[in-house]
Structure formats: C-alpha cells, structure tokens
Amino acid sequence: MENEKVYQMPFGKIYPLLVNKAVRKGRTVQEVNEVIGWLTGYSPQQLEALAATERTYRQFFEKAPS
What is the Cα–Cα distance from 15 to 20, expressed in whole angstroms? Predict the structure, then answer.
C-alpha cells in the first residue's frame, strides 16, 4: 500500500512538511503543534526533539503518550 511508505519515513522529514503546508495556508507553527499535541499527547518541546531523531512516522504514533 502507498500509506506504508509514509509510515516508514522519519518523523523529522514529515514534520517540516506539515508545518510548511499549514503556514502556506495561513496557520502558525503553534497551531500545528497544538493540533498534533491534541491528537497524540506530545508537547511542543517533545515534537521538536522527535523531529531531530530517526523515529519513523509509525513509531511516532505507536509511542504517543495518549
């Protein structure tokens, strides 16, 4: 499946893409972090730290605090 390719990508590669798309649509990084935090339980600091790791997008969701 095509979705499997996305889940194997590093979160650090996907996160900036999500932020850039939101900014292009008139949103802020804080709003992106707020939505991701609401869905997963990660704090903005945790998101920044995870973006610097090799954790995959799948692991990002599987190990989410909530």
Answer: 9
Residue 4 is predicted with a pLDDT of 83
Put simply, whether the predicted model's pTM sits higher than 0.85 gets the answer yes
pLDDT tens across 7-48, in order?
Answer: 999 999 999 999 999 999 999 999 999 999 999 999 999 999
Q: From residue 11, give the alpha-carbon distance in Å to each of 14, 26, 52, 57.
A: 5, 23, 8, 5
User: SS3 for 63?
Assistant: coil
Give the number of domains in the chain.
1
